[in-house]
Amino acid sequence: MRKHTLGSLTWIRMMRFTNQSNQLSNEFLKRFDLTTAQFDVLIQIKTYAPLTQSQLAEKVTVTQGGMSRMLARLEKEGLIERKQNWKTKTISLTAKGEQMIDAATPSQLHFQSSFFEEVLTEEEMKSLYTLMSKIEKHSREKKLPPA
Amino acid sequence: MRKHTLGSLTWIRMMRFTNQSNQLSNEFLKRFDLTTAQFDVLIQIKTYAPLTQSQLAEKVTVTQGGMSRMLARLEKEGLIERKQNWKTKTISLTAKGEQMIDAATPSQLHFQSSFFEEVLTEEEMKSLYTLMSKIEKHSREKKLPPA
DNA sequence: TGTTTTCACTTGATTAAGCAAGTGATAGTG
DNA sequence: CACTATCACTTGCTTAATCAAGTGAAAACA
Protein backbone atom coordinates (compact mmCIF):
# COMPACT_ATOMS: atom_id res chain seq x y z
CA MET A 1 0.00 0.00 0.00
CA ARG A 2 1.96 2.91 -1.34
CA LYS A 3 -0.61 5.24 -2.77
CA HIS A 4 0.43 8.59 -1.40
CA THR A 5 0.50 11.22 -4.06
CA LEU A 6 2.67 14.29 -4.18
CA GLY A 7 -0.39 16.36 -3.43
CA SER A 8 -1.47 14.37 -0.43
CA LEU A 9 2.02 14.45 1.02
CA THR A 10 2.10 18.20 0.58
CA TRP A 11 -1.29 18.48 2.22
CA ILE A 12 -0.17 16.57 5.28
CA ARG A 13 2.99 18.61 5.65
CA MET A 14 1.02 21.78 5.43
CA MET A 15 -1.50 20.64 8.01
CA ARG A 16 1.25 19.65 10.39
CA PHE A 17 3.06 22.89 9.84
CA THR A 18 0.07 25.13 10.42
CA ASN A 19 -0.97 23.17 13.46
CA GLN A 20 2.48 23.33 14.94
CA SER A 21 3.12 26.96 14.10
CA ASN A 22 -0.29 27.95 15.34
CA GLN A 23 0.48 26.42 18.69
CA LEU A 24 3.81 28.19 18.87
CA SER A 25 2.16 31.42 17.86
CA ASN A 26 -0.40 31.09 20.63
CA GLU A 27 2.33 30.56 23.11
CA PHE A 28 4.21 33.52 21.72
CA LEU A 29 1.21 35.83 21.90
CA LYS A 30 0.59 35.04 25.55
CA ARG A 31 2.98 37.82 26.34
CA PHE A 32 0.45 40.19 24.80
CA ASP A 33 -2.54 38.43 26.32
CA LEU A 34 -3.87 37.44 22.93
CA THR A 35 -4.50 34.28 20.97
CA THR A 36 -3.59 33.83 17.33
CA ALA A 37 -7.26 33.93 16.37
CA GLN A 38 -7.80 37.16 18.29
CA PHE A 39 -4.76 38.76 16.77
CA ASP A 40 -6.03 37.79 13.39
CA VAL A 41 -9.44 39.39 13.80
CA LEU A 42 -8.03 42.52 15.44
CA ILE A 43 -5.73 43.01 12.46
CA GLN A 44 -8.64 42.57 10.11
CA ILE A 45 -10.69 45.10 12.00
CA LYS A 46 -7.85 47.56 12.10
CA THR A 47 -7.33 47.19 8.37
CA TYR A 48 -10.90 47.07 7.12
CA ALA A 49 -13.01 48.81 9.79
CA PRO A 50 -15.80 49.66 9.73
CA LEU A 51 -17.19 46.28 8.77
CA THR A 52 -19.94 43.89 9.85
CA GLN A 53 -19.66 40.62 11.72
CA SER A 54 -20.54 38.56 8.70
CA GLN A 55 -17.90 40.18 6.56
CA LEU A 56 -15.38 39.57 9.30
CA ALA A 57 -16.44 35.95 9.72
CA GLU A 58 -16.01 35.37 6.03
CA LYS A 59 -12.57 36.95 5.98
CA VAL A 60 -11.19 34.76 8.72
CA THR A 61 -12.98 31.54 7.69
CA VAL A 62 -15.13 31.13 10.77
CA THR A 63 -18.87 30.64 11.19
CA GLN A 64 -21.09 33.53 12.18
CA GLY A 65 -21.77 31.89 15.49
CA GLY A 66 -18.11 31.59 16.23
CA MET A 67 -17.55 35.18 15.29
CA SER A 68 -20.40 36.32 17.48
CA ARG A 69 -18.87 34.72 20.53
CA MET A 70 -15.35 35.74 19.73
CA LEU A 71 -16.38 39.37 19.39
CA ALA A 72 -18.36 39.16 22.61
CA ARG A 73 -15.15 38.12 24.35
CA LEU A 74 -13.13 40.89 22.76
CA GLU A 75 -15.80 43.39 23.66
CA LYS A 76 -15.86 42.23 27.27
CA GLU A 77 -12.14 42.82 27.43
CA GLY A 78 -12.62 46.29 26.01
CA LEU A 79 -10.66 45.77 22.82
CA ILE A 80 -13.47 46.41 20.37
CA GLU A 81 -16.82 48.17 20.15
CA ARG A 82 -19.97 47.08 18.40
CA LYS A 83 -22.57 49.65 17.48
CA GLN A 84 -26.02 48.66 16.36
CA ASN A 85 -26.28 50.54 13.14
CA TRP A 86 -29.25 50.24 10.87
CA LYS A 87 -29.72 46.49 11.02
CA THR A 88 -26.11 45.43 11.21
CA LYS A 89 -23.51 45.89 13.91
CA THR A 90 -20.52 47.95 13.03
CA ILE A 91 -17.29 46.87 14.58
CA SER A 92 -14.34 49.04 15.47
CA LEU A 93 -11.33 49.01 17.74
CA THR A 94 -11.32 50.88 21.04
CA ALA A 95 -8.29 52.93 22.02
CA LYS A 96 -7.20 50.02 24.17
CA GLY A 97 -7.61 47.59 21.31
CA GLU A 98 -5.67 49.82 18.99
CA GLN A 99 -2.88 50.08 21.51
CA MET A 100 -2.86 46.35 22.03
CA ILE A 101 -2.63 45.48 18.39
CA ASP A 102 -0.02 48.13 17.71
CA ALA A 103 2.10 46.75 20.50
CA ALA A 104 1.81 43.17 19.32
CA THR A 105 1.97 43.58 15.57
CA PRO A 106 5.68 44.06 14.93
CA SER A 107 6.81 41.11 16.99
CA GLN A 108 4.04 38.89 15.79
CA LEU A 109 4.64 39.60 12.12
CA HIS A 110 8.30 39.05 12.68
CA PHE A 111 7.58 35.81 14.43
CA GLN A 112 5.32 34.56 11.66
CA SER A 113 7.90 35.47 9.07
CA SER A 114 10.64 33.69 10.91
CA PHE A 115 9.09 30.34 10.13
CA PHE A 116 9.96 30.98 6.51
CA GLU A 117 12.88 33.35 6.62
CA GLU A 118 14.96 31.07 8.74
CA VAL A 119 15.03 28.34 6.12
CA LEU A 120 14.15 29.79 2.73
CA THR A 121 15.89 32.15 0.36
CA GLU A 122 14.23 35.36 -0.77
CA GLU A 123 13.57 33.69 -4.08
CA GLU A 124 11.91 30.69 -2.48
CA MET A 125 9.74 32.84 -0.26
CA LYS A 126 8.41 34.75 -3.22
CA SER A 127 7.60 31.60 -5.05
CA LEU A 128 5.95 30.10 -1.97
CA TYR A 129 3.79 33.17 -1.60
CA THR A 130 2.69 33.00 -5.20
CA LEU A 131 1.83 29.34 -4.91
CA MET A 132 -0.08 29.82 -1.66
CA SER A 133 -2.08 32.66 -3.14
CA LYS A 134 -3.21 30.52 -6.02
CA ILE A 135 -4.09 27.60 -3.82
CA GLU A 136 -5.86 29.58 -1.17
CA LYS A 137 -7.95 31.40 -3.72
CA HIS A 138 -8.86 28.13 -5.34
CA SER A 139 -9.88 26.54 -2.06
CA ARG A 140 -12.36 29.31 -1.42
CA GLU A 141 -14.21 28.48 -4.59
CA LYS A 142 -13.92 24.76 -4.28
CA LYS A 143 -16.98 22.60 -4.05
CA LEU A 144 -17.30 19.09 -2.76
CA PRO A 145 -17.23 16.39 -5.43
CA PRO A 146 -20.48 14.42 -5.69
CA ALA A 147 -20.71 11.21 -3.68
CA MET B 1 0.48 51.17 8.85
CA ARG B 2 1.89 48.91 6.16
CA LYS B 3 4.14 46.52 7.93
CA HIS B 4 3.06 43.20 6.51
CA THR B 5 6.01 41.19 5.38
CA LEU B 6 6.10 38.60 2.66
CA GLY B 7 6.41 35.96 5.33
CA SER B 8 3.45 37.12 7.35
CA LEU B 9 1.28 37.31 4.26
CA THR B 10 2.28 33.80 3.35
CA TRP B 11 1.54 32.64 6.87
CA ILE B 12 -1.97 34.05 6.77
CA ARG B 13 -2.71 32.52 3.40
CA MET B 14 -1.54 29.18 4.61
CA MET B 15 -3.64 29.35 7.75
CA ARG B 16 -6.71 30.28 5.76
CA PHE B 17 -6.08 27.55 3.28
CA THR B 18 -5.60 24.79 5.82
CA ASN B 19 -8.58 25.94 7.81
CA GLN B 20 -10.78 26.01 4.73
CA SER B 21 -9.53 22.79 3.25
CA ASN B 22 -9.77 21.03 6.57
CA GLN B 23 -13.42 21.96 6.78
CA LEU B 24 -14.06 20.74 3.26
CA SER B 25 -12.19 17.57 4.02
CA ASN B 26 -14.30 16.91 7.09
CA GLU B 27 -17.40 17.35 5.04
CA PHE B 28 -16.01 15.07 2.37
CA LEU B 29 -15.11 12.33 4.84
CA LYS B 30 -18.61 12.27 6.29
CA ARG B 31 -19.46 9.79 3.59
CA PHE B 32 -17.01 7.41 5.26
CA ASP B 33 -18.08 8.33 8.76
CA LEU B 34 -14.69 9.77 9.58
CA THR B 35 -13.19 13.12 10.45
CA THR B 36 -9.98 14.42 8.97
CA ALA B 37 -8.21 13.93 12.28
CA GLN B 38 -9.38 10.35 12.54
CA PHE B 39 -8.36 9.58 8.99
CA ASP B 40 -4.97 11.01 9.75
CA VAL B 41 -4.32 8.84 12.80
CA LEU B 42 -5.71 5.70 11.15
CA ILE B 43 -3.30 6.20 8.27
CA GLN B 44 -0.45 6.66 10.69
CA ILE B 45 -1.37 3.50 12.54
CA LYS B 46 -1.71 1.55 9.33
CA THR B 47 1.68 2.76 8.18
CA TYR B 48 3.66 2.56 11.39
CA ALA B 49 1.88 0.01 13.59
CA PRO B 50 2.72 -1.24 16.09
CA LEU B 51 3.37 1.98 17.92
CA THR B 52 2.57 3.63 21.24
CA GLN B 53 0.18 6.45 21.98
CA SER B 54 2.94 8.92 22.65
CA GLN B 55 4.65 8.21 19.38
CA LEU B 56 1.36 8.65 17.60
CA ALA B 57 0.60 11.87 19.41
CA GLU B 58 3.94 13.25 18.42
CA LYS B 59 3.48 12.31 14.79
CA VAL B 60 0.19 14.09 14.42
CA THR B 61 1.03 17.12 16.59
CA VAL B 62 -1.49 16.56 19.33
CA THR B 63 -1.13 16.33 23.10
CA GLN B 64 -1.06 12.98 24.84
CA GLY B 65 -4.36 13.76 26.49
CA GLY B 66 -5.96 14.52 23.16
CA MET B 67 -4.61 11.31 21.72
CA SER B 68 -5.87 9.30 24.67
CA ARG B 69 -9.42 10.49 24.10
CA MET B 70 -9.27 10.22 20.36
CA LEU B 71 -8.13 6.61 20.55
CA ALA B 72 -10.79 5.86 23.12
CA ARG B 73 -13.37 7.01 20.60
CA LEU B 74 -11.83 4.98 17.79
CA GLU B 75 -11.69 1.96 20.05
CA LYS B 76 -15.31 2.35 21.03
CA GLU B 77 -16.22 2.34 17.37
CA GLY B 78 -14.20 -0.80 16.88
CA LEU B 79 -11.66 0.64 14.47
CA ILE B 80 -8.57 0.08 16.57
CA GLU B 81 -7.32 -2.09 19.41
CA ARG B 82 -5.11 -1.20 22.32
CA LYS B 83 -3.21 -3.89 24.13
CA GLN B 84 -1.52 -3.24 27.42
CA ASN B 85 1.92 -4.45 26.68
CA TRP B 86 4.71 -4.20 29.16
CA LYS B 87 4.02 -0.69 30.37
CA THR B 88 2.89 0.90 27.14
CA LYS B 89 -0.21 0.34 25.07
CA THR B 90 0.33 -1.01 21.61
CA ILE B 91 -2.08 0.22 19.01
CA SER B 92 -3.23 -1.60 15.95
CA LEU B 93 -6.09 -1.55 13.47
CA THR B 94 -8.94 -4.02 13.73
CA ALA B 95 -10.24 -5.70 10.62
CA LYS B 96 -13.04 -3.17 10.55
CA GLY B 97 -10.58 -0.32 10.89
CA GLU B 98 -8.44 -1.69 8.13
CA GLN B 99 -11.44 -2.02 5.88
CA MET B 100 -12.58 1.49 6.71
CA ILE B 101 -9.29 3.12 5.94
CA ASP B 102 -8.79 1.11 2.77
CA ALA B 103 -12.17 2.21 1.55
CA ALA B 104 -11.57 5.85 2.31
CA THR B 105 -7.94 6.25 1.35
CA PRO B 106 -8.10 6.49 -2.45
CA SER B 107 -10.83 9.12 -2.54
CA GLN B 108 -9.40 11.05 0.33
CA LEU B 109 -5.90 11.20 -1.11
CA HIS B 110 -7.38 12.21 -4.41
CA PHE B 111 -9.44 14.87 -2.73
CA GLN B 112 -6.46 16.26 -0.86
CA SER B 113 -4.40 16.34 -4.02
CA SER B 114 -7.08 18.11 -5.94
CA PHE B 115 -6.52 21.27 -3.92
CA PHE B 116 -3.14 21.52 -5.60
CA GLU B 117 -3.55 19.66 -8.87
CA GLU B 118 -6.42 21.77 -10.01
CA VAL B 119 -4.37 24.95 -10.03
CA LEU B 120 -0.68 24.07 -10.16
CA THR B 121 1.59 22.57 -12.76
CA GLU B 122 3.57 19.42 -12.03
CA GLU B 123 6.62 21.62 -11.70
CA GLU B 124 4.98 23.91 -9.19
CA MET B 125 3.70 21.04 -7.12
CA LYS B 126 7.15 19.57 -6.80
CA SER B 127 8.59 22.85 -5.74
CA LEU B 128 5.77 23.41 -3.25
CA TYR B 129 6.40 20.02 -1.72
CA THR B 130 10.08 20.74 -1.33
CA LEU B 131 9.39 24.08 0.29
CA MET B 132 6.81 22.67 2.67
CA SER B 133 9.13 19.89 3.73
CA LYS B 134 11.82 22.35 4.68
CA ILE B 135 9.42 24.59 6.54
CA GLU B 136 7.61 21.85 8.35
CA LYS B 137 10.82 20.27 9.49
CA HIS B 138 12.07 23.60 10.71
CA SER B 139 8.89 24.32 12.65
CA ARG B 140 9.27 21.13 14.59
CA GLU B 141 12.62 22.23 15.92
CA LYS B 142 11.68 25.82 16.45
CA LYS B 143 11.82 27.37 19.89
CA LEU B 144 10.08 30.46 21.15
CA PRO B 145 12.19 33.61 21.10
CA PRO B 146 12.85 35.02 24.58
CA ALA B 147 10.47 37.69 25.84
C1' DT C 1 12.80 -5.44 50.78
C1' DG C 2 10.69 -1.22 51.12
C1' DT C 3 10.56 3.43 49.29
C1' DT C 4 10.96 6.74 45.73
C1' DT C 5 11.18 7.92 40.67
C1' DT C 6 9.87 7.54 36.31
C1' DC C 7 7.00 6.57 32.61
C1' DA C 8 2.81 5.93 29.75
C1' DC C 9 -1.54 6.84 29.91
C1' DT C 10 -6.18 8.83 31.81
C1' DT C 11 -9.25 12.22 33.37
C1' DG C 12 -11.50 16.65 35.25
C1' DA C 13 -11.94 21.41 34.11
C1' DT C 14 -11.82 24.88 30.77
C1' DT C 15 -11.91 26.89 26.17
C1' DA C 16 -13.34 27.43 21.55
C1' DA C 17 -15.51 26.00 17.41
C1' DG C 18 -19.48 24.12 14.55
C1' DC C 19 -24.36 23.47 13.61
C1' DA C 20 -28.91 24.68 13.75
C1' DA C 21 -32.77 26.77 15.98
C1' DG C 22 -34.14 31.21 17.84
C1' DT C 23 -34.77 36.48 17.99
C1' DG C 24 -35.89 40.89 16.59
C1' DA C 25 -35.88 44.52 13.36
C1' DT C 26 -36.57 45.90 8.52
C1' DA C 27 -38.30 45.14 3.79
C1' DG C 28 -41.45 43.58 0.60
C1' DT C 29 -46.30 41.87 -0.68
C1' DG C 30 -51.42 41.24 -1.04
C1' DC D 1 -52.20 48.11 6.86
C1' DA D 2 -51.40 43.59 8.38
C1' DC D 3 -48.46 39.65 7.41
C1' DT D 4 -44.78 37.13 5.81
C1' DA D 5 -39.97 36.84 4.43
C1' DT D 6 -35.40 38.10 4.99
C1' DC D 7 -31.34 39.45 7.18
C1' DA D 8 -27.76 39.99 10.83
C1' DC D 9 -26.78 38.36 14.84
C1' DT D 10 -27.27 35.25 19.22
C1' DT D 11 -27.50 31.12 21.80
C1' DG D 12 -28.12 26.01 23.35
C1' DC D 13 -26.02 21.85 22.48
C1' DT D 14 -22.38 18.99 21.14
C1' DT D 15 -17.64 17.86 19.93
C1' DA D 16 -12.86 18.05 20.45
C1' DA D 17 -8.64 20.02 22.05
C1' DT D 18 -5.53 21.88 25.78
C1' DC D 19 -3.48 21.89 30.39
C1' DA D 20 -2.47 19.98 34.56
C1' DA D 21 -3.31 16.85 38.14
C1' DG D 22 -3.98 11.97 38.95
C1' DT D 23 -3.11 6.75 38.56
C1' DG D 24 -0.79 2.58 38.47
C1' DA D 25 2.92 -0.33 37.22
C1' DA D 26 7.82 -1.07 36.52
C1' DA D 27 12.76 0.55 37.73
C1' DA D 28 16.17 2.19 40.56
C1' DC D 29 18.16 2.61 44.75
C1' DA D 30 19.23 2.35 49.78
From TrEMBL, chains A, B:
PANTHER family: TRANSCRIPTIONAL REGULATOR, MARR, TRANSCRIPTIONAL REPRESSOR OF EMRAB OPERON
Name assigned to this protein: MarR family transcriptional regulator
Alphabetized UniProt keyword annotations: DNA-binding, Transcription, Transcription regulation
UniProt KW Transcription regulation keyword: yes
Organism the protein comes from: Lysinibacillus xylanilyticus
Domain HTH marR-type: 1-137
Signal peptide range in chain numbering: none
Keyword Transcription regulation included in the entry's annotation: yes
SMART domains assigned to the protein according to its UniProt record, in alphabetical order: HTH_MARR
Pfam short name (any one): MarR
InterPro entries: ArsR-like_HTH, HTH_MarR-typ, WH-like_DNA-bd_sf, WH_DNA-bd_sf
